[in-house]
Structures are given as structure tokens and as C-alpha cells.
Amino acid sequence: MPQYTIGLDYGTNSVRALLVSVDTGKEIASSVFQYRHGKAGILLDPRDPDVARQHPRDYLDGAESVIKGVLAQAKNQAGFSPSQVIGLGVDTTGSTPIPVDANGTPLAFYAELDTNLAAMAVLWKDHTGHQEAAEITELAAKIRPEYLKKCGGIYSAEWFWAKILHNARSTPDVFAKAYTWVEHADWLPAVLTDESHPTKLKRCICAAGHKAMFHKDWGGYPDAEFLSQLDERLVKVRATLPDHAYHVGESAGHLCPEWAARTGLTAGIAVSVGAFDAHLGGVGSGITPGALVKNIGTSTCDMMVAPLESGMADIPGLCGIVPESILPGFFGLEAGQSAVGDIFNWFVGEVQPGKLGHVELTAAAEALKPGESGLIALDWHNGNRTVLVDQRLTGGVIGLTLQTTPAELYRAWVEATAFGARVIMERFEEYGQSVERIINCGGIAAKNPMVMQIYADVMGRPVSISGSTQTAALGSAISGAVAAGAFPDFASGMAKMTSLNPRIFTPDPQSQRVYNELYKLYHRLHDAFGVKGESDDLSDVMKKLLALRDEVRNA
Amino acid sequence: MPQYTIGLDYGTNSVRALLVSVDTGKEIASSVFQYRHGKAGILLDPRDPDVARQHPRDYLDGAESVIKGVLAQAKNQAGFSPSQVIGLGVDTTGSTPIPVDANGTPLAFYAELDTNLAAMAVLWKDHTGHQEAAEITELAAKIRPEYLKKCGGIYSAEWFWAKILHNARSTPDVFAKAYTWVEHADWLPAVLTDESHPTKLKRCICAAGHKAMFHKDWGGYPDAEFLSQLDERLVKVRATLPDHAYHVGESAGHLCPEWAARTGLTAGIAVSVGAFDAHLGGVGSGITPGALVKNIGTSTCDMMVAPLESGMADIPGLCGIVPESILPGFFGLEAGQSAVGDIFNWFVGEVQPGKLGHVELTAAAEALKPGESGLIALDWHNGNRTVLVDQRLTGGVIGLTLQTTPAELYRAWVEATAFGARVIMERFEEYGQSVERIINCGGIAAKNPMVMQIYADVMGRPVSISGSTQTAALGSAISGAVAAGAFPDFASGMAKMTSLNPRIFTPDPQSQRVYNELYKLYHRLHDAFGVKGESDDLSDVMKKLLALRDEVRNA
């Protein structure tokens, strides 16, 4: 009898369910629910562009809708019955903490707080806590430098403690009503299994380790002395947090009768501990040691895993190195580029002639040879997440002439993001994480072969594309299968349930040669503008670009 | 009885006549003739984009047409008679040498050479001699370094000897038919006065000094030893050239009966020695010591004059320092920016959304405060003419974010050209040429007040705009009046015949403060990318731009 699992993938604007065959990885059905509150699911504050909140009601309404949706679709298929669904996994955005009461009920579910922004889930991209984040970084640098080493040296406004501290400072009345704060990725599996009471709730290592400074080296979450120097009230929150965190694939519990009734699934099936979408996207891409998985969207999440027994030095500039955050038994290593698709969209939507879209610009850019534009660009329009960890860097381009075309600029931005990706790869390798191949997932990977070939040529590695276009949801389905005991471990689960697109992008030696030259120039600009204390004579840079241009054009 | 003169202004695509009152400078009539040969008056070679030639027939047909044109227009005005026209001045593009036979007849006038590109006038922007120009620079650097010092250190492909040498090398048969080569600016007055026989023809110091390495320090044109090392055949050309060159305002002769008959003017009236359009544009703008005259078009020509008795050190990086090239009694100093309007046109025509033209972008850019975009750009899309004298530099911009708008980019390009203009101004001042005020002329000056205000704010000087929109033609008319003896000197001629627009753009102290900060950053990028041996830690540049941006936005 075939078995199935469901992956629930909570994105920024919607939640998706993916029903997958445990035996083959075949994606049987998919259903999407757009969050109902706010603008495209996000509650905004017209007076403060930093605000981005969500109503947790949408998470529950969405879960019911999309699970029902996939079951309804699959019922039309011969031989399928909901009773064959043996498990469920969940991924969400993060850090997206939700304030809850002593019973684990979100404050947003109280009638009097139903429209109060301070009671809502604080979406990952909410930046209201930037002042508090700076304060946390400063204090940690002074008294707990080890806290910063696992998260790249700078605590972000997008993370757990900054958001909670900001809530305490800016809306103390609402803050006082919260017993504790729960990540969306932890809360959702807990609700489905009726384990959401704070004393029972399991928290995942993925959120705790990457966003909340949790590490076993210092006994879990940050200590009370540290938190008290930020705000006494954080010590009370700390007291509600457990000393242990769970990895994905461990059981969060069993689907409770209420949710079985709401969805049509069988009560008692396994629900996995949750994780962040990017990380389960790594799982859905079949991440293994030696593979760099790049989830390329508006920005990127770059992931590697390394066996726990290998030991692991801190790698400066990475977003996080957390034991078992991506896969049990492995360190999860996370890096990222702050803007990739966002840069292409900015150029197409804001800067260049309205007539040319991505398709036309890609076609024209593809006809160009590497180096022939004489351009080189910096991909820092949204700062640099890895390896410089500096949000106050900006994008740039040099090599402009009166003949420079939009297609040349478009290609230069693509190349810049590839150079940025190579810097990250080289940082991994410098610290012993050899990158043998690259697996790209996300919309751009599937849609734009030119971008993939440029990545292969710039990075000098074969580039594969995930066989699924919904890798996060697929990864969640795999975690559900592991939690259900269908596989002894993720390796065997991924072997059965993931695939790669048969087309592999292989580096072209001629392009590689040119890109190696351009990368040297990129790296010099990277260091000149990005690294304090670096000084360089850049007077040869424009000339080298022109010499390369002339050489390529006359070849 | 009111008196009038005519200025003939030969541009790249057309010739214009301007009929002007000697007593008031009032522009009575204006007439334009589009050259008939080639594409918009330029003979091209589809196999070689460097070729740009003109048929000298167009110069004569044009002269007849536009002089008749202004006389016909003016005849409708009460009291005007062609006999009141007392003189004529001529300006042309340059260096635009024409091969002529031993009688001074252009080779192009021979029936068998009528369509031979090698027999045509070699238009200023013809770049076929780039190899020869490099050769001349190299040889001069080795054995005649003094030749280079008066022309900024690099001999250009756009200049006299490079063009002649290229003709000798590439088309020896046509070259052999030429007795000598005559600049368009010298040939035209010579034809009008029937003094075009090579033994009689007067050559102007403007063309000789700025483009043909003529200087009295070394007895005029380059010596035979130097030329023979380039090509023996140049020695024969050198032998046809005089040892003396004339300045504008000196008489080229008197209008000959043939041309009096062709045009309707009175035979015997004065015709001035010619000069280049930009320089007579300086005259038409009322150039005086202490004023920097900027002729702003697709590129700029920046001019100053300094009394001959002041002595004059060589100023590194200037295009030329030539006694009496602009005004008799004064050194003429020429600098320039390789692209200004061309950059704005490139951005509007090539890069940004089709919906926004110069008018819309200017309106949006004008609403921005200095510094608020966080951008800084380099204006080197066509290389850097002054002070770096380096055609292999390219444009750039940094400070880009995902919110960067086309209007911000447009303003950044305008500001970049203003910063480039300030570098030139500071170079003048560094060598004792104090700039008290700026006079802008050319189309952009008249059309775009935002650009003028930004120039005032960046350069910290009051900026005036020439009262005439045809300053070159007006300058020629003044030279005709001086040659006719209507004025004892140019100072009194300019006082009567030129004017400034009453609107003066005064630096705004608040904008100046911000631009002083931005200029520091521009200068650091200028030196980092443009000056060999400069090394700088640029890691604070993007942050300073953002800090300035935030400060300005929150002010």
C-alpha cells in the first residue's frame, strides 16, 4: 500500500501544502492559501515602514484549507485514501516569533487584541527592532563575544531577541500580557499535535540556534545576566524557555483529534518538529556534505552540512553554524546574499526601458560573451549578508560607456551575484568545507538557464537544479516521513524522495578563464569598498576591464 | 548709420550665419544650411566606424546659402541695407584639415576624387589616426617632450598631424596629390578673400597652437627631424607651412568680388582670420580673465584667458595653453570634459524607462535634496579629457539600493559632471588662474536651470548664462567687427556686443555644504580609479554616503 506525507510550507504571503509519495517522491497534489489579513498577508503600519506583522489566525485557517485542498485533489486519483497519509512536516519563515499566554494561546486570539499590531506574529522581515539589535550586538561584543561567533558577528533586527526586546520597550502593556514567545515554526506543529502549552511545546534547534543565540556550549539560550543588562523583563521570558531544542525529523507529537477532524487526516499520525523554509528547502534539494545548496529568490540562503564528528571551527562572516539545524547528525551552515532576484527586479522594474522585461533582457544578455561589456558590478543593493555582514554597503557598477546597453547592465548584475556567490563558496572552502557541486533551487534556478550557466562558469563547479520547484514543502514532507518512521534517517529519505533536474550546467573553460580575471577585479572592489583597512591602487581596474573587453570582442 | 557684421559658424552637421548689430549686439537674422553630403553632412565608411569626413563643397554652398539667407531676412527690417554689413568672421570645428593642391584647391574638387573619402576634409571626430596619434605621442615623449606639455601630455587622434600621417600611410596615392593641408578654419576665410593660394593663406594660431603643435618657443610647427622620424613625407608638408600664425580679429583679407557677387555683400569688407567654434563661443560669451567659460553640449570645452604679460606655467592635464588662441593679448587656456550631455542622453535614451524624458527626469531630480540619494557617480563614459587625459577610463556609480530611482540616477550623473567641472576649475586655480565666476553657454545652459544651480552649488561660484544661444556665431561676428576696425580691441567689442542672461545662479550655502562632502568622496574615487600610484582605503565611502543621505533626509 503506497504511503504519503504532507509538507506544509509557510511563506511570506501564503501557505502551501504538498502531498508527496513516500515511495517515489512524486508530488501528488499541491494547494495554496493566501493569508487573509493585511496587504498580501502582511499587517503594515502606514507610519512605520519597518513594521511587518501577521495574524496567527491565518496560519491555522491556512493549514485547514491547504490540507483539505490536497486531499480533495488526490481523492480523484485511483487508489488514494487520506488514511495513507502517515505524517506531516512544517516549515515556516523565521525568525517569526508569536507572543502567547500561559496556555500557549496567541495574544492575537483575544478579542480585544485582534487588531493590535503588538499582539501579532512579528514577521521575519519586520525591522522595528534595529535599535535593539544594535544594542544586543554591542553588549554581546563586550561581555559575551561567543554569542556572536555563531551568527556571523552581528545580531540582526530580524531575529528573536531584538523583536521581543522592541515589543517590551515600545508596547509594554501588550508585552506584559505575554507569558512567552514562540516561533511560528514551533507553534504550528505544537497546535496540530495539541502540544502548544508552554510546558510541553518543543522548540526547534533551527530557530533557536540560528536566531535566538541558543547553543549547548553555553547551556542553551543566552544567560540571565546577559539578558538582564538588556532588560530585566527578558529574564522572565528566558525562564519560560527549555534547555533542550529538537531537530527536524524528531516527532513534535501526533495529530490531535481536533485537527484530524478539521482536515480529514487520520488522528495520531506523526508530525515532525518544524524548521525554517530555507533549511527544509535544503533537505528537499537532497543536501549532502560537499554540496552547496543555494536557494535563490529575491535573496539567497546558501547552505552546507558537515558531519558532527568532523568538528567545526567558527567561520567568520557566516550567518550561523548550528549543530543539526538542517539535518540531524550534521552541522548546518548558513550563509546568504542579501539581494539577488531583487536586483534583477529593481533593474527591470525601476531602471531600464519599460519595453524590456526579464525574458527580453535575458535573451539579449545571453548573446553577450563574458567580459565583452567591460562592466563589473557590486551586488550590495541590500547590503552584504555574507561574508562582510554589513547592511550599510551599497551596490555599484563601473565600466560604463556611452554605448553601454540595458542587456549589458542586466548581465553585469547577474554576474555580480555570481561573484558574490563565489566569495561565499571560497569562504566555506577556506574553512575546510570543500564544495564539489552546487545545487540551486528556487524560482530563478528553474526559470533562467542563463543565470545557471553564469553561476557554473563563475564558480567553476557543476551546477544542478533541484527536481522540485517546491523544495521547502518537499523537505517538510520528507521530515514528516522521517518522523513517521518511514525512513531510518534523512539520507535514505532524501535518496527516495528528492531528485535533480537532468540538465547539469558544466563550467565552460573559455568563459571560466575570462570570469577568473573578472572575479579578481570584483574581489579587489569587494575588499576596497567592503573591508576596513584595505587600501589598493585601483587605477588599473578600468583599463583591465577594457583590455579584457577588447580581447573578447576581437577573439 | 547702424553697422552690422556676420558670424559664420560651421558646426558638425550644418553651418549657421548670424547677422548682428555692431552697436548693440542685437541678433538681427539667423540662417542655417544642412550639409548635403553623407549622413547629416558626414561621409561615413560602413567598414570603419572611425571614419568621419566632409565634402568641402558643402562649406562653400553653405556659406552662400546662409549669407543670402540672413540678408534676405534682414531686408524686411526698416532701414537695413546689405551695404551696412562691414565685416565677417568665421568659426569652424577642428581639427578638420583639408588636403589641397598647389593652388589651394581642395582635392575633393577634382572630378575624379569627388567621392574619394581620402580626398575629403577629415572631420574633428574622425578617429582613423589613433594608431598614428599614439606613435606621435610616443616619439614626442622620447625626443620632444616640450611638444606634449602644451597639449596636456597626449597627442590626440582628432588632431592635425595624426590625420595627415594616417592619410599618408593608408592612401599614399591621394596623399601624393596633396600639396599641403589646410584647416577648415583657415581655408574658409581664405576662399572668401581669394587668398587661398598656399603662399598667401593665413593660418590661425588657434588651430596651429592647439592641434598642430605650433609654438613660438620652438619656431612654429614641429621640426623636420621630429617629423622625419614619423614619416619623411611629413617633412614635405612641413615645408609648405609658414612660421607665423595669426590670431582672430586680424584681417584674413577683404571679401573678393566673386563672393560679393555670390552673396550680395559688398566687395572689400573685412574678413577676420578664423578660429574654432568653442573659442569664438568664449568670445561670444564675453570671456575675461577671472571668468571660466564652459561651453556645455554633448561634451564641454572649458576656457579661460590670462594676460600674456602674466607669464604662464604649463598646467598639467590641460588640452592646451596657446598665446592668443582665444583673444589677442591673452593666453588661451583650454580644458574639457569628454562627455556631459552625452551622458544624460545615454541615460534617457538607452538605460531608463522609455516613459521619462529629460523634462520629466529633471522635474523629479529637482525635487531631490543634494545627498539624499546616497549615490555618487563618475562621469567618464567617454574617458577623461581634463585633468587625467585618459580615454581608457569609464563611468561608474556607487550607492545603489533597491530603492534607487531613475530620477536619482539622472541627478547623480548631473552632479558627477559638476564634480568633474570642479576638478578642472581647481586645476586652473592651483596654477594661479583664479576663477571668480562661471559663464555657461551651449544648449544645456539655456535649457536646464537645475543643471546650472547644481553647477553653482558644487563649484561654489556664481554661474551666469550667456545672453546669446549662438555664442560661437556671435563671437565670429565680433571678430568680423574687430577685423573691420569697428572696435580697437575685443574688450570693447565684447562689451558692446555680448550680454549675460540676467538670472545668476548663486551657490546655496546648505547645498554647498553637502556637495563639499560629496566632492571629497568624488575626488577620492577620481584618484583611486584614475591616478596611478594612488592607494586608498575606500571602506568608509559607502557608509559616508549613507550617513549623509540619512542626515539630509531627516533634516
Summing up helix and strand content along with how strands pair, one would put the structural category of chain A as alpha/beta
Largest sheet of chain A: 7 strands, mixed
- The span between the termini of chain A is 61 Å
Question: Runs of chain A with pLDDT <50, length 5+?
Answer: none
Question: Oligomer, anyone?
Answer: homodimer
Provide the β-strand percentage band of chain A: 15-25%
Overall mean pLDDT of chain A stands at: 95
Greatest chain-chain contact: A-B, 48 and 48 residues
Radius of gyration of chain A: 24 Å
Q: Could you say which overall geometry of chain A the principal axes of the C-alpha atoms support? A: globular
Give a count of the beta strands of chain A, DSSP E runs of length 2 or more: 20
